[in-house]
Amino acid sequence: MKKIAIIGGGSWGTALAIALAQSSRPHRLTLWAHSADVVEALSTRRVNEIYLSGFALPAGVEVTGNLGEALAGADIVLGVMPSAHARGMYHAMRPFTEPGAIFVSATKGLEPETHARMSQVIAEEFGPHSDSRIAVLSGPSFAREVAAGDPTVVVLASADPNLASEVQAEFSGPRFRLYTNDDVIGTEIAGAVKNVIAIAAGICTGLELGTNAVAALVTRGLAEMTRLAVALGGRRETLSGLAGVGDLILTATGELSRNRSVGIELGKGRDLGHILGSTRRVAEGVGSTAAALDLAGRTGVEMPITEQVYAVLTAGHVTRDAIRELMERRLKQE
User: Is 333 a domain residue?
Assistant: First the structure.
């Protein structure tokens, strides 16, 4: 029986703990949370009332705020922390992580300071030989639906197909199905940039521009995601799968999407600081926009939607002007 340490007690980390407790293989599960109030709620009432209310944590899942305790004897380390805190967390884990442990990143974002992907952050913190022990989990998966046991299908990417198959077998259950691929770059870029496009889709909704506009924006957003992923070494077909178009559709149109919700409020004219200050939940697209735009600049990739989202987020660009500028761009072939 393998031990899985889930590092991150937000909605996604809690949902994954619930799903893994119901997987086809038995595990020892430990959920680590940073906030004392989250640890207290999960330990005493077995419900994450702050991030994922209404769902009981299975009795077999241990809860702790002690990182060493969470990682002791862990065969698999499942990272579910915000991208802005990932490097610090992985650095703090180094003294406690078992030799040979497998890392699975479920964080869908890019590091704000370096614009690195999460697998790169892990490799930099744990050394070059850790590359063969890293996988990333992505795909269309709202935390509340996973916790509710709604059928969910995601993708696990690793450069090592044997490792991917091992984690696939450990994580899969009757209502949580994993496919595998070996395109880590494409999977991570898709997971990060789809959040940016979801903000833009939310802006369209907040401006009440209609479903034609949202459909067009999502389609052209997928083209941006694909261009960037391929330029960085990913594969086009990955963007046509669960990590790409699947997650983009969910995040850009689903009512539970944090990034779409931020876009809707921006479209209604609300200030970004007030939007973000009103919740403890993280909208990864806000931090990933600048990173995606920087990567696009390095590779010579055109990303007009991302440029406009960046202008709205950082320069107070009026959302209606951003849409107008997209519509008035030079005419060209698809």
Answer: no
Flag whether 39 is in a domain: yes
Distance CA(281)–CA(138), nearest Å, equals 18
One domain for residues 200 and 56: no
pLDDT in tens, 82-118: 999 999 999 999 999 999 999 999 999 999 999 999 9
Q: Is 207 helix (H, G, I), strand (E, B) or coil?
A: coil
Whether 332 is covered by a domain: the verdict is: no
Domain count, the chain: 2
Strands in 76-79's sheet, in edge-to-edge order, are 61-64, 27-32, 2-7, 76-79, 102-105, 134-138, 152-157, 176-181
Task: State which H helix or E strand residue 266 sits in.
Answer: helix 258-267
Distance between CA atoms of residues 205 and 210, nearest Å? 7
pLDDT in tens, 192-247: 999 999 999 999 999 999 999 999 999 999 999 999 999 999 999 999 999 999 99
Range of the domain at 189: 185-327
- The answer to whether residues 104 and 156 touch, using CB atoms and an 8 Å cutoff, is yes
Q: Same structural domain for residues 98 and 197?
A: no
Overall pTM surpassing 0.90 (yes/no): yes
DSSP β-bridge partners for residue 154: 178
Active-site residue list? 194
- The domain boundary, picked from 182, 211, 244, lies at 182
Both 263 and 138 in a single domain?
A: no
Contact (CB, 8 A) for 57 and 47: yes
